[in-house]
Amino acid sequence: MPEPPLESEGAAAGAGAAMGAVAGLATTEAEILEQRPPTADAPTGGGPRAADRPRSLWSDAWRDLRRNPVFLVSALIIVFLVVISLWPSLIASGNPLKCDLARAQQGAGPGHPFGYDGQGCDVYTRTVYGARTSVSVGVCATLGVALLGSVLGALAGFFGGLWDSVLSRITDVFFAIPVVLGGLVLLSVVTSNSVWPVIGFIVLLGWPQISRIARGAVITAKQNDYVQAARALGASNSRILLRHITPNAVAPVIVVATIALGTYIALEATLSYLGVGLKPPSVSWGIDISAASPYIRNAPHALLWPSGALAVTVLAFIMLGDAVRDALDPKLR
């Protein structure tokens, strides 16, 4: 048989050498990649990359809140207030109801950094114990207002019709009632010294605001395509309202409720100052401010410390609500 030409053998040899070089280069690159540490963009466990995973509104909001100094400062103040409300003896060992008239209107002294009020009570101890009343009234009233207002507003916005019309007229009536004047009228006949009459009054006059917010959020959410798709698939009204609309309409309610919590604390102090809210022997910043007002020239410290504690508390909750609003509002991103 005739021998193959030498050019074919050379070409085959050249191709084999080229393939060997490519294989060697691929092997070298593979070794380099194995030795290289994984980057943030590279998948580590065979799953989807972290950058490719969809993020929810709440995860984005939490990420923004952690970077917001306003939220961090207000959250630290609120955590401190909650701790001293639950365990005031951690920083105040005295009795807020124990008074000594011989020390009335005295200034600061050893063990009594805030001095004494007009009745000889320790201002520091009463200021610390007053946080329990203010925080408990604010939290309980906010929970009651948010729950009642959200339920009524969500039902009105979802079903509409006669229910929506009736609820709108009722809320208009409650909006027409001045809050302080309503408190003077309704709470003047209450003789209880507990916080529950004040909480009930705040819930009674505070739910229309949350109801309006919840109604508008539900009306907006139920127009979305996913709600229409769930309805087309045969989902019941309760399932649509609880599973699809509520998670997407609750953000405005949370924002308004957080800001309103601070105003409810100020409202309780105002009613107590006017004598229709909490009454002695209850310990409240409003009661202490009212008792210290006649002695503002001789003992201004008795008015300064409870007023300052009230102002810082209200400001902390308002700042927290503003930070939460900015984090949950997609338009501000």
Total E-strand runs: 0
Described by the principal axes of the CA atoms, the overall outline is: elongated
Kindly state the mean pLDDT as a whole number? 82
Low-pLDDT segments: 1-48
Structural class: mainly alpha
Percent helix, as a range, is 55-70%
What's the end-to-end separation, in Å? 81 Å
Order of helices and strands: HHHHHHHHHHH
Number of helices: 11
Largest sheet: none
Rounded to the nearest angstrom, the radius of gyration is 33 Å
The fraction of residues assigned to DSSP E strands is: under 5%
Describe this structure in words.
It contains 11 helices and no strands. It is mostly helical. The radius of gyration is 33 Å and the shape is elongated. The termini are far apart.
Short description:
With 333 residues, the chain is mainly alpha-helical. The chain contains 11 helices and no strands.
Which features characterize this protein?
disordered N terminus; 333 residues; mainly alpha; 11 helices
What does the secondary structure layout of this molecule look like, with pairings?
Blueprint: H1 6-35, H2 57-66, H3 69-86, H4 123-159, H5 161-175, H6 179-186, H7 196-221, H8 225-232, H9 237-274, H10 285-292, H11 301-328
